[in-house]
Amino acid sequence: MHEASSSRAFRLLAGVILAASVVACETVVISMVEVGDVEVFPPSITLVEGQADTASAVIRESGGVQLSGASVTWSVDDPEIASVTAEGVVEGRAPGTTVVRASSGGVSGTAEVTVLFDTGTAGGSCDIRDEVLGDDFEIPAYTRCTLTNVRVFGNVRLREGSGLVASYLTVYGRVEANAAQELSLADSRIIGEVQAEKGRNVTIRNTFVARKVELKSNRGAIAMADNTVLETLRLEDNRIGPFSLVRNTSQALECKDNDPAPVGGGNVASQKSGQCSGL
Questions:
Q1: Domains of the chain in sequence order
Q2: How far is CA 84 from CA 52, 72, 107, 266, in A?
Q3: pTM of the model
């Protein structure tokens, strides 16, 4: 009885060892999905100080198939301008421009965030009508001014993040906008020139400019219609758009390295070059 029991126990133990060996030799294949692209929606966000909006991220594998359930980490380049939560809620903190990022699997997507000044706050805006200003007029940073039927015998300068909405404005010097959020001229006369660089939106219509208009490296929309520019009208290295040129008259119309290319027509110029050759 003892010998038979030992024999059965040995056979049972051998069977367990064999089964364990088969399991141990089984090949397990683990499939790793590689993230190929992260896209943030909306691609650009504009907020007023204290306002919030929600961004979302679409994750795709390298083959283009959308992934669901992938983890996303949110961050912002300049936390003084805007903040972002783990859920993608973006809040404007201070006027300026920054970038929000969504990252997954070592790949990032971005959206540009622009925070505008709150014109309801003290010192955030000015409104001048029917005035004559003998010296230069400067709009402080992140301040928005409305000028109506105003004469300026010097220059008009817009500082970073500022805005100017003017109608029936006469400037005997030049208009300079450096990193401004908004420059809008309507039914106006500029005896010098107009220069807007590294800013946002520019709108000029039915305005006379005795010298040149140069719009360079702006990130927003540009619309020019029914203007007379005695020298050169130039658009260079502007982004986001759209850029519209309609029925403008100038000595030369020059456009290069804008994305997208300007559209429009009916412009009259002795010379047209680059992206504006057919406009």
A1: 35-116 (2.60.40.1080), 125-272 (no CATH)
A2: 9, 12, 18, 45
A3: 0.63
